[in-house]
Design a protein that fits this description.
Layout: H1 2-31, H2 52-63, E1 67-70, H3 73-78, E2 93-95, H4 103-116, E3 121-125, H5 128-132, H6 162-174, H7 177-189, H8 209-216, H9 218-234, H10 248-262, E4 266-271, H11 276-284, H12 288-305, E5 313-317, H13 350-361, E6 370-372, H14 377-398
Parallel strand pairs: 1-2, 1-3, 3-4, 4-5
Antiparallel strand pairs: 5-6
């Protein structure tokens, strides 16, 4: 009788464990708080940025985009895949940008996306800071954890770690306490305004930004982030980029250009529309000459890397001094004012992103910025210098 009781207990315990396991998997797959499974039954995903690299990788596979956006976080919050400025024949558009997507990661994500299905168009946003930070001059990039879930290794061959990582990701998104808790909280918080989220097309609408503005004001955000940017440049090194191939980010850019040509992909590279306050940080930190040298090295890298299909590659320069980049920042303490074009000195709104998309998609010429090539590069640099002189000349006279 005692032996039968033990058996009954073990049977009940085993069945309970299996039931709880099944319920946990069902809950997490249904809610899909990190968008791994493409369930999309809950629109808001406030915890998705805890697993951003995982989410972007698997969402990209579900969407199988015709246009892929790559770059840092300003591109993630500024270029909306659902913008009306994207031509219908290159949709769906997927935004794979993010805070950790430097040029090297952009190259690896493009390899992955090509393995899923080669896109027609790739839009690549570049960040000057990536090219001047100390690690950019390292000899190699150590393996990164997120690379294990990509379909392709660095050599372009099928990844041997993908299968194992798939099971790890399945376990971490269904059978761990954080995943269960995040699923429950995602259900509880759905519909609440002001929560961060990621759309099914990888876009971050920055919904939490409005709450920060209402609490601190836009000027406080600008000032806080500007101090971070200044500190980053203090820890970086100006360079004239005489040998771009010695820089890891330039080598990754060259790899992206080669991939685009090999797969007949239209590649659009752009320099972001930094706010004039950020451009002045470059001047004050002694990086302006380096900034101009960087643009020369970008054009040189594209020209040296592109082969017979150089017509597939286009570059745009949205940086400079104009009415948009000089948009007035509200006064300190003003928590009601809004800005049309910027969230801080480097993060632009989707309204400005729409103008950029229209420029990059319009064969008749850009409505914003300048198409950049070897023929007009120096003229573009001179134009920006003149625009700065005109902007600050009244200030000098008044003094």
């Amino acid at each position: 009788m005692l032996r039968n009781s033990h058996r009954s207990f073990l049977l009940i315990a085993g069945l309970s464990f299996l039931l709880l396991t099944a319920l946990s998997i069902a809950l997490c797959v249904y809610v899909d708080p990190y968008r791994m499974y493409g369930s999309a039954r809950v629109a808001d995903t406030p915890y998705i940025y805890d697993q951003e690299a995982l989410a972007k990788t698997y969402l990209m596979e579900h969407v199988r985009p015709n246009t892929l956006i790559l770059g840092r976080m300003p591109a993630e919050t500024g270029l909306n895949p659902e913008s009306q400025e994207w031509p219908d024949n290159i949709k769906p558009v997927f935004n794979a940008s993010g805070r950790h997507v430097d040029v090297f990661m952009a190259w690896r994500l493009l390899q992955h996306d090509i393995a899923v299905r080669p896109p027609q168009v790739v839009v690549l946003g570049l960040d000057f800071l990536d090219f001047v930070q100390p690690e950019a001059n390292s000899t190699s990039i150590p393996p990164r954890d997120w690379e294990r879930r990509l379909l392709i290794d660095r050599s372009g061959k099928p990844s041997s770690s993908r299968g194992i990582q798939l099971w790890r990701d399945f376990f971490s998104t269904t059978l761990t306490l954080p995943a269960i808790w995040d699923s429950i909280e995602t259900l509880r918080l759905r519909g609440h305004p002001g929560l961060s989220t990621m759309t099914e097309l990888g876009f971050n609408p920055a919904r939490d930004y409005d709450g920060v503005v209402r609490h601190n004001g836009i000027e406080a955000i600008f000032s806080h982030n500007d101090e971070i940017y200044r500190a980053q440049y203090r820890d970086s090194y100006p360079s004239y980029f005489y040998s771009p191939s010695r820089n890891l980010e330039f080598r990754a850019l060259a790899d992206i250009v080669k991939l685009a040509e090999q797969n007949d992909i239209r590649l659009i590279i752009y320099i972001p529309p930094y706010h004039s306050r950020y451009l002045e940080i470059l001047h004050d930190a002694g990086f302006w000459v380096s900034f101009e040298a960087w643009k020369r090295a970008l054009v040189q890298t594209v020209d040296n890397t592109s082969g017979k299909r150089g017509d597939l590659i286009t570059m745009y320069d949205f940086s400079g001094y104009d009415d948009i980049s000089g948009e007035r920042v509200p006064a300190p303490g003003d928590t009601q004012a809004e800005m049309r074009w910027y969230r801080d000195s480097t993060h632009y709104t989707s309204a400005l992103g729409d103008l950029m998309i229209a420029s990059m998609m319009d064969a008749g010429g850009p409505v914003l910025g300048q198409e950049l090539n070897a023929g007009n590069l120096e003229a573009d640099l001179q134009r920006i210098r003149r625009d700065r002189d005109r902007l600050f000349a009244p200030l000098e006279v008044s003094r």
